[in-house]
Structure to design on (144 residues):
């Protein structure tokens, strides 16, 4: 018996929009070294390499334009870190509210990661930018 029922794309989009609504103006996307903590409730782990700031409207409404079974929210402009505090190899990121509540986290890498970077090498003093970030939730209405 399945213990994980599937949801429609309408439900997945509503859930994605509710999640991204928690990411308010001036929320941060922080990039750290090492593996992500076990949960979003755990303390930050690794060394901070960059703090990027989300814009006034961090995410627009989610979409499902490709029929891939995913509700997708593409972040609006994210302001770069103009003076990275430490030299690290990026391993994970966390997006948190201005009050510090972590809304989402994931891995960083040049491929097969949640946050794709052109390079995971960050040197102290670097400018670190994020040209795009997509958050996704699966549904049972399409190919995943």
């Amino acid at each position: 018996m399945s213990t994980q029922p599937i949801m429609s794309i309408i439900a997945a989009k509503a859930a994605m929009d509710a999640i991204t609504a928690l990411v308010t103006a001036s929320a941060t996307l922080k990039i750290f070294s090492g593996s992500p903590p076990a949960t979003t409730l755990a303390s930050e782990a690794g060394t901070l390499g960059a703090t990027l700031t989300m814009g006034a409207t961090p995410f627009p409404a989610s979409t499902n334009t490709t029929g891939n079974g995913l509700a997708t929210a593409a972040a609006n402009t994210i302001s770069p870190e103009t003076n990275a505090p430490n030299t690290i190899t990026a391993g994970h990121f966390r997006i948190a509210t201005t009050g510090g509540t972590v809304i989402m986290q994931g891995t960083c890498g040049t491929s097969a990661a949640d946050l794709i970077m052109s390079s995971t090498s960050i040197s102290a003093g670097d400018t670190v930018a994020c040209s795009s970030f997509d958050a996704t939730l699966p549904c049972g209405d399409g190919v995943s």
